[in-house]
Design brief:
- The structure holds 2 protein chains of 2 kinds.
- Chain A is of the alpha/beta class.
- Chain A has 7 helices and 10 strands.
- In chain A, helix 6 links the parallel strand 7 and strand 8.
- In chain A, helix 3 packs parallel to helix 5, helix 4 crosses helix 5 and helix 5 packs parallel to helix 6.
- By secondary structure, chain B is mainly α.
- Chain B has 2 domains: 128 residues, no CATH class; 71 residues.
- Chain B has 10 helices and no strands.
- The longest helix of chain B is centred in the middle third of the chain and has 34 residues.
- The termini of chain B are far apart.
- The chains are: A alpha/beta, B mainly alpha.
- At the A-B interface, helix 2 and helix 3 of A face helix 8 and helix 9 of B.
Chain lengths: 265, 237
């Protein structure tokens, strides 16, 4: 469970003037809760503050006011626990991939957590299986396609075995096969009960997967509703929504082996 | 192309990184101890063998192309004089041999980088240098290996961006200025993003390091490394 209480984030503030107008307000007094197992979409236009908001979930951004707690513990009290519980996939996976090979990159997080070698191997195997990349441990990261990089980035976050997985604009820059492939992996994660928080300005692919949508405008929560109800209000936030809402139930029929394995790169 | 680890099943890939580090150190020491053409000829064979055993070849040396002009011009500069005879061949030859031994060391280093994952280098360093110093050194090496290829790619894209908008017609100095400014800006941005990524993945100074174990193939490598060190030391006594 992620609890966000009155969080405000400013950029460009000097941090000590106490002036309410000091700096640009990216997130403005946001309060919300994200229960375990929920597929949440955080929607908003560019610059609305959605990325800043989710980066407070694991302490990558420290709020100027308010608190964020993960599983009851304030993020600032235990950053490692927060970052283990809230995995993050960045908008550009190239910013996230730090090793030369797929296996080494996915292992990077568990190594930092001090896991045993057997545990690291198990986590790497499981994470690669979850993104349909089993047996690709020795592939060079530099030789991967955009969709494959996105999937390796997701695997790297999954290897931390987080309670919540945050994906920041997961479809940006992907071609159609890669987009379908990542979408399939999100369906698999949803079917497996993993909490997913998708940050996006384009909800056409993911709205049907969501349990709930939080719309952000000017740093504030403008919409917080189930997808059917939210769909009507979201266009006012300058985000793209599907022409009509249709719940995506395909994961209910996903196989235990991981759903659609015939996807592209 | 950026020189980096390449997954392969070569002999060098199967060696413990500590063996490879000893060979590298021994080679560098021998290269500075034996500067005669005969000595450098023998070291040339060894350097080529090191790169070949890592599955590499001449293409890997292309990474060092920026260093080639410097190494090539150094003998010319060393040999030039301000008056008669205007050029001293013996001085140029001495510096040429020095440039050549630098090239040989780069060849051996290419074999190491190609055959050794960054985290294994980090593990080797942290085991060789105990305590905080080893952690600091190992982490530094790991970050440099991770950051430099990204930085190089940023500089290349900055150069391409300049050329794509007609910048190729600008004077060299102006092009260098544009690429340098863009490169520095991108380097800072890249460093920020890399730092954020490392934080998000719980970067630790003392993570679980890969298992390192000396195998049968390591003993000949250790013998070669120790022999090179001994040969270099022998020239001092």
């Amino acid at each position: 469970m992620i609890d966000v209480d009155g969080v405000t984030c400013r950029f460009g503030s000097d941090g000590g003037s106490g002036d309410a107008d000091d700096g640009v307000v990216a997130v403005d007094d946001v309060t919300l809760s994200v229960p375990d197992g929920e597929f949440l979409i955080v929607a908003g236009a560019n610059g609305s503050g959605k990325t800043t908001l989710v980066r407070t979930f694991n302490g990558l951004v420290e709020p100027d006011a308010g608190t964020v707690a993960v599983n009851g513990t304030p993020v600032s009290d235990d950053l490692v626990a927060a970052r283990t519980a809230v995995g993050m996939v960045f908008q550009d996976p190239r910013d996230q991939l730090v090793a030369a090979t797929v296996g080494a990159d996915v292992a990077f997080g568990p190594e930092n957590l001090g896991c045993s070698h057997a545990e690291i191997d198990r986590r790497v195997d499981d994470a690669l299986a979850a993104v349909n990349m089993t047996g690709r441990e020795d592939d060079r990261v530099a030789s991967l396609s955009g969709g494959e990089r996105e999937r390796v980035a997701i695997a790297g976050a999954l290897a931390m075995e987080p309670d919540h997985l945050v994906l920041d604009e997961p479809f940006t820059g992907l071609d159609e096969p890669a987009r379908r492939s990542v979408l399939d992996r999100l369906r698999d994660l949803r079917a497996a009960g993993t909490s997913v928080i998708a940050v996006t300005h384009d909800l056409r692919d993911v709205l049907g997967l969501a349990d709930r949508v939080v719309g952000i405008a000017d740093g504030r929560v403008a919409v917080d509703a189930a997808p059917e109800a939210a769909a009507a209000d979201l266009p006012g936030l300058d985000v793209r929504v599907p022409a009509s809402f249709e719940a995506d139930d395909s994961d209910r029929y996903a196989t235990a082996a991981g759903g659609d394995a015939a996807s592209g790169p | 192309m950026t020189l980096s680890y390449v997954p392969d099943g070569s002999l060098a890939h199967r060696l413990d990184p500590r063996s490879k580090l000893l060979v590298q150190i021994g080679f560098a020491a021998a290269a500075y101890a034996y500067t005669t053409p005969r000595g450098l000829a023998a070291l040339t064979l060894l350097a080529v063998a090191c790169l070949s055993l890592a599955g590499g070849g001449p293409r890997d040396l292309w990474t060092y192309r920026a260093a080639f002009p410097v190494l090539a011009i150094a003998p010319v500069v060393a040999g030039a004089t301000l008056g008669a005879p205007w050029f001293r061949v013996e001085r140029a030859a001495t510096t040429g041999l020095a440039s050549y031994r630098v090239l040989l060391i780069l060849v051996v280093a290419a074999g190491y980088v190609r055959s050794t994952p960054v985290r294994e280098s980090r593990a080797a360093i942290q085991r060789a240098v105990p305590g905080k110093a080893g952690q600091f050194l190992g982490t530094g090496v790991a970050l440099v290996f991770r950051f430099l290829p990204l930085l190089k790619r940023d500089l290349l894209t900055a150069r391409e961006a300049v050329q794509a908008r007609g910048g190729g017609a600008l004077p060299v100095r102006e092009r260098m200025r544009l690429v340098a400014v863009a490169g520095i800006n991108r380097a800072f941005g890249r460093a920020d993003r890399l730092g954020t990524a490392l934080n998000a993945r719980c970067f630790a100074w003392n993570p679980t390091l890969p298992r390192l174990a000396l195998g049968p193939a390591d003993y000949p490598a250790l013998a070669v490394g120790a022999g090179l060190v001994a040969a270099a030391v022998a020239t001092l006594v």
